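S., here's the first fold you wanted:
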Amino acid sequence: MEYQFRKAEITEIPQIWDILQSAIKRRKEDGSDQWQDGYPNPEVVKKDIEKEAGFVLTEGENIVGYCSILINDEPEYAKIEGNWLTNDDFVVFHRVAISEQYLGKGCAKIMMGFIEDFARKNNIYSVKADTNFDNFAMKNIFEKLGYEFCGHVYFRGGQRKAYEKVLQKSKI
């Protein structure tokens, strides 16, 4: 089967929330405090979808993963302790979570490829993101996909590692 990437629908919140709850549990089992403070939650997902920022990775009828994508909309990024690679328009993604049944199949990388395509389609050539210092899986994916560490940003009192990837203008 082939993976598809599209905007999430309100009716899909229960499936998305199941995926996020499993990811929250995995972070806790890994000994991380990331996502252990009541965030994310179904209301956050609902707001993502209402502002057309919630996206799902699907295989057939199955929701494989979830993320939120925004354009130039992350106020905390202006307060980076460090330096971004660019100061132009950017796409930012948050809340990347993959279904338990699809772990280890490269789905997060596939999703990030779709996010980069989304940026290009909007004539934006910078993708920015952040993750917890102990989210080794995500940091590894950033490294493999060519994201560069740029510094630290803060969310809900916690320090996050900030990354950016500058995209090529034409993908031929």
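And the second, which I think is the more interesting of the pair:
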Amino acid sequence: MDIGINEQDRAEIAQGLSRLLADTYTLYLKTHNFHWNVTGPMFNTLHLMFETQYNELSLAVDLIAERIRALGHYAPGSYADYARLTSIPEAEGVPRAEDMIRQLVEGHETLCRTARGLFDVAGRAEDEPTADLLTQRLQTHEKTAWMLRSLLEK
């Protein structure tokens, strides 16, 4: 494979993207869970908001996995892989709506940190497609975290 990025850099980028994929999939599952189980006076608003968010995360999972494949590596795809790679904790039980929001803010902020951690190697390897993907993910996660955070203001 000769796409202008050496094997060592491709492997390092794919490894980082695998962590991003695991975080994204874990947050997708958490958001979908909260969509199904939210209750309270903000039910309709949160139910619809969470649906929009998990749909976006579902599309992102595919984009990230396909970038890993384009770099010549296999994308992780099992719960065991994701549990080993993610830095986002699973929800315990069914939290109250406000705690769901707080957990999702933390999840999106975690994804921002995971994505930011990949810019150095992508830049060093002149891997613009990965850098572009990371920029798009950051824009989405920062905006979503801001919107969710706004719901927590008194």
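Why I say that: The chain is about 75% helix and 0% strand. The two ends are 55 Å apart (CA to CA).

Talk tomorrow,
H.
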